[in-house]
Design goal:
Largest sheet: 2 strands, antiparallel
Distance between the termini: 42 Å
Strand order of the largest sheet: 1-2
Radius of gyration: 30 Å
Low-confidence stretches: none
Helix content: 55-70%
Shape: elongated
Number of helices: 20
Mean pLDDT: 93
Number of strands: 4
Length: 452
């Protein structure tokens, strides 16, 4: 029975993906541990530290051994880690002679951390692929709707016109930056761990660093540097990145939810029969994808301080802080990937009601264009006076039930400077989009670069 919904066969599709669960499944972790042990044996054999025949037998056994999960569970309850039981099983499978050389010079955390680094590598690769799959359809929307006029809202109130394409570009820009962040952080998070008991690798004499670098190359991880048993910044940075990513996805989800309100009705989630339905209200189409993006974001972001707080590790091996990671790191990856898949679903199938967008720009009686009128008037009377005069005209429009253009015509101070043609031009939302196209082009250029 699942306790966390991300692991549930029922709720799992809402909170995560099978692909990411497969990466962080505990069976996958055990296999990664076996892979690390086999790679270590091969590297040490290549350097003449252990017999080549032993490395070959260990490698064969790592691919064939059937682990007794009951025995591992019993060992973990006693030891606190699964490595001892896994190494014991591998040694038996490799045979008495070869088995003597398993885990040569390594310590538990070398194997466990390097196995998790391999999981993180696979997880970040999945994240990158899904992130680009969100970027591409958003870029299409930004370009297609660069001239689709809609209300720009500040403090949930009508402010000034924008285009839906610009809104999509604002959603898109952080995601492009996240691809760059991801590519930059991966070498810091995908690092081999090989330090032995206290980070000196004294058990291998003076060849420990050489073995570690060869092991990194064998596993496709980063080498060099020093053992990082108690310096967890790489994994912490990876989870911090997932928190940032989910924050950006939650911005999109929040906007889609608000734009889909009945009173706004400008943008809707993709619709499938029965999706987002209510047990009592047949008309409901709830924004399910957006809601689960928001849920995932809040949970992933809660994992970030857990990981950061666990960085205060004592001496050469921590007594407690490290144990937070297995609870936080896999969960953050699974939930973040689930959020990405919901966002991909949104971006690929958003329903946009352009007519309703235009109608909503007119709903406030032209008050949306107050800034545009002010800037038309400012060269004639100064910006401060223009602000004052237009503010008075807006107050009159609200008090008398007029649209802004009519209020301006009835205000002598503005009528003296703005003729009907100027007022008509200044109150046309489509004429007040400023540098919208230039900004969209900048974002699309960045999106094209990371999608290659």
């Amino acid at each position: 029975m699942a306790i966390h919904p991300a692991d549930s066969p029922i709720f799992g599709t809402l909170y995560g993906t099978d692909a990411m669960r497969t990466v962080f499944d505990e069976r996958a972790l055990f296999q990664r541990m076996l892979d690390v042990e086999a790679a270590l044996a091969r590297c040490e054999a290549r350097l003449g530290i252990i017999p080549a025949e032993a490395a070959e037998a260990i490698t064969r056994a790592a691919g064939d051994v059937v682990l007794d999960e009951g025995a591992i569970a019993k060992s973990v309850r006693n030891v606190g880690y699964p490595v001892v039981a896994v190494v014991r099983a591998l040694s038996r499978a490799a045979g008495d002679e070869a088995g003597r050389y398993t885990h040569w010079g390594a310590t538990t955390q070398d194997i466990l951390d390097t196995a998790v680094a391999l999981q993180v590598k696979s997880g970040l690769a999945l994240v990158r692929t899904s992130l680009v799959a969100v970027i591409d359809p958003l870029a299409v929307l930004a370009d297609r709707h660069r001239g689709t006029v809609m209300v720009g809202r500040t403090h949930l109130q009508h402010a000034a016109p924008i285009s839906f394409g610009l809104k999509c570009a604002v959603w898109l820009a952080p995601l492009v930056a996240h691809v760059e962040r991801l590519d930059q952080l991966r070498p810091r998070a995908e690092r081999v761990q090989f330090g032995g008991a206290v980070g000196t690798l004294a058990s291998l004499g003076t060849r420990g660093a050489e073995v570690g670098d060869l092991l990194a190359a064998e596993l496709g991880l980063e080498g060099g540097g020093v053992p990082w048993h108690v310096a967890r910044d790489g994994f912490v940075e990876a989870v911090g990145f997932l928190g940032l990513l989910c924050g950006s996805l939650s911005k999109i989800a929040t906007d889609v939810t608000l734009l889909g309100q009945t009173e706004v009705a400008e943008v809707f989630e993709p619709y499938e029969e029965g999706r987002g339905g209510s047990s009592t209200m047949p008309q409901k189409r709830n924004p399910i994808a957006s809601e689960y993006v928001l849920a995932a974001a809040r949970t992933v972001q809660a994992m970030v301080p857990l990981m950061q707080n666990a960085m205060a590790q004592d001496h050469e091996r921590a007594t407690g802080p490290w144990q937070v990671e297995p609870a936080a790191l896999p969960q953050a990856f699974v939930l973040a990937h689930g959020a990405l898949e919901h966002a991909r679903h949104l971006a690929s199938g958003l329903r946009i009601d352009e007519a309703r967008m235009r109608k909503n720009t007119e709903a406030g009686g032209g008050l949306l264009m107050a800034e545009a009128v002010m800037m038309e008037l400012a060269p004639r009377v100064g910006r401060g006076e223009a602000h004052h005069l237009v503010e008075q005209a807006c107050a009159r429009a609200l008090a008398d039930g007029l649209d802004l253009a009519e209020a301006l015509r009835r205000t002598p101070e503005t009528r003296a400077h703005l003729d009907d043609a100027t007022v008509a031009r200044a109150t046309d939302p489509g004429r007040y989009l400023g540098s919208t196209s230039a900004f969209i082009d900048r974002v699309l250029s960045g999106a094209a670069a990371v999608s290659r």
